[in-house]
Amino acid sequence: MKKSTGASRAVAAFLIALLMVPQVLLAESAIDESPNEWAMVGDLLVARPVGVVMTAGGAAVWLVSLPFTLLAGHAGEAAETLVLGPGEATFMRCLGCRNTGYTNKDVDAINAAREASGEE
Fold this sequence. Notes:
Structural class: mainly alpha
Order of helices and strands: HHHH
Oligomer: single chain
Mean pLDDT: 80
Strand content: under 5%
Number of helices: 4
Largest sheet: none
């Protein structure tokens, strides 16, 4: 039986494209912290699900490698790279943003809430 070469080529092309996407994003020098609606939709439908899969896969790999990394004394570094890094990129940024952490709007809202409640 002969396999379909068209389907295997399409899968290979898709995998290559997925590997190239992070390189294109890293090569861009300007960072826009006011994403448009297309960036938000793309982030919601593509980047976040991929990030969840990467976080879960990293956790599985970290768990399998845990005995070896404990012996070497690098379990924390492995957890940072395999689980915490992808988790932070997935869950700790605004929808459509490229940088993790708070945006200026978030910081202003937090400061305004603190001032309103009387906290210093």
